[in-house]
């Protein structure tokens, strides 16, 4: 309420209450669209590539091409009806189309304003900030901590640059890359020696593995001493009397424009990572067939340079193997390897694979290992939650 008054101080109580009620209702309905998507069991199969023209033909209520071109014209990019986009997921798009048919445009624009206010209002007004903190049930933290949190959330490249340059080591990067190569060699040997897959399937497995890229540490170019200057070359000069909000807005706008420009750039998986360098979890991208092992993960207890190789294989090696295995599990067969591979696995190979899986479950599924008396698993789980 205080946030709304900040924007329109002259508004009366009745209008204010109506505005808040309608914005809240709109937000709940919009959030409900995502909830329905998350509970859909076949979500992975709903991710698809489709042309903008096809989407507009099937969902005529959303002028997608016009809306996208309004944004991309800011960086001199023009899209056409033949432009292909990756849709994740079609269920959400269907729900959104139906939702917009019954939406009052005023509610939509008001809600958009509320979202902008929620993003910037806490930094603009102490009154708004106090109102948000009270609504979230939080105490105001020290200002420098809040600034760091904002940097992490909105200026990821800057934080990654500082983090990696403070601690990077080519020896660590080389050793983990070697560990990844050894694990991939083990996968390759397993595929070639297996007895449950026919020759055609084995060849496809090996081809997929050979095309899998493993990125370790950080994107190419992050250690360039001029990395930050190149990123923010379009940002207006920062003066001594510039406010934090003004600087933050200019840098956020620069980041958004860079994201738009990427559409005309050829994709480079070594340069354009999905994960942040400071992340502490490896990530496999099915779309790019790329495994990312970020720099933030390469620290104890997962990894420490100088220890025997067996430690690396049992820790960071196990982590890499677990992520890599996702590309070759049962779900990977159907959703990640392509239609022609999916068809080849519907017959004998799939049957043999399921038999092998069931045999493993039958042998080990009922094994129970009693933990020491001092390990209270239930309490540990509650603490983690």
Dominant shape: globular
Helix-and-strand structural type: mainly alpha
In whole angstroms, the N-to-C terminal distance is 32 Å
Q: Determine the oligomeric state from the structure.
A: single chain
Strand order of the largest sheet: 3-5-4
The percentage of residues in β strands lies in 5-15%
Q: Could you give a short account of the major beta sheet?
A: 3 strands, mixed
Helix tally equals 19
Family: Belongs to the peptidase M13 family.
GO biological process, one term: protein processing
Organism: Amblyomma americanum (Lone star tick)
Keywords: Hydrolase, Metal-binding, Metalloprotease, Protease, Zinc
Would you give an account of this structure?
One of its GO terms (biological process) is protein processing. This protein is mainly alpha-helical. The chain is globular, with a radius of gyration of 26 Å. 59% of the residues lie in helices and 5% in strands. A hairpin with a 4-residue loop joins strand 4 and strand 5 (290-294). The strands form two sheets. A three-stranded mixed β-sheet has the order 3-5-4, covered by helices on one side. It has 19 helices and five strands.
Give a brief rundown of this model.
The protein has 385 residues and is mostly helical. Helix content is 59%, strand content 5%.
């Amino acid at each position: 309420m205080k946030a709304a008054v900040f924007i329109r101080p002259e508004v009366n109580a009745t209008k204010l209450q109506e505005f808040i009620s309608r914005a809240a209702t709109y937000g709940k309905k919009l959030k409900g669209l995502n909830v329905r998507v998350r509970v859909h069991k076949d979500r992975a199969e709903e991710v698809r590539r489709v042309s903008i023209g096809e989407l507009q033909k099937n969902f005529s209520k959303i002028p997608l091409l016009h809306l996208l071109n309004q944004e991309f014209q800011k960086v001199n990019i023009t899209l056409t009806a033949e432009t292909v986009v990756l849709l994740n997921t079609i269920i959400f798009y269907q729900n959104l189309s139906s939702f917009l048919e019954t939406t009052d445009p005023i509610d939509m624009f008001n809600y958009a304003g509320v979202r902008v206010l929620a993003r910037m209002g806490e930094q603009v007004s102490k009154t708004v900030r106090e109102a948000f903190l009270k609504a979230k049930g939080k105490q105001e933290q020290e200002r420098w901590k809040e600034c760091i949190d904002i940097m992490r959330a909105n200026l990821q490249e800057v934080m990654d640059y500082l983090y990696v340059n403070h601690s990077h080591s080519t020896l660590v990067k080389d050793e983990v890359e070697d560990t990844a190569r050894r694990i991939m060699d083990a996968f390759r040997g397993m595929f070639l020696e297996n007895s449950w897959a026919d020759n055609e399937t084995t060849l496809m497995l090996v081809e997929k593995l050979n095309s899998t890229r493993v990125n370790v540490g950080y994107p190419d170019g992050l250690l360039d001493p001029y990395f930050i200057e190149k990123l923010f070359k379009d940002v207006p000069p920062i003066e001594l009397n510039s406010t934090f909000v003004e600087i933050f807005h200019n840098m956020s706008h620069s980041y958004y424009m860079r994201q738009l420009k990427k559409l005309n750039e050829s994709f480079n998986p070594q340069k354009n990572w999905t994960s942040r360098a400071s992340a502490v979890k490896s990530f496999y991208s099915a779309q790019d067939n790329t495994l990312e092992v970020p720099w933030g993960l390469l620290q104890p207890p997962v990894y420490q340079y100088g220890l025997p190789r067996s430690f690396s294989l049992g820790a960071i090696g196990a982590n890499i193997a677990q992520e890599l295995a996702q590309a070759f599990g049962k779900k990977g067969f159907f959703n990640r390897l392509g239609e022609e591979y999916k068809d080849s696995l519907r017959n004998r190979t799939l049957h043999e694979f399921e038999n092998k899986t069931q045999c493993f479950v039958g042998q080990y599924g009922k094994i129970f290992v009693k933990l020491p008396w001092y390990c209270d698993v239930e309490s540990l789980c509650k603490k983690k939650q």
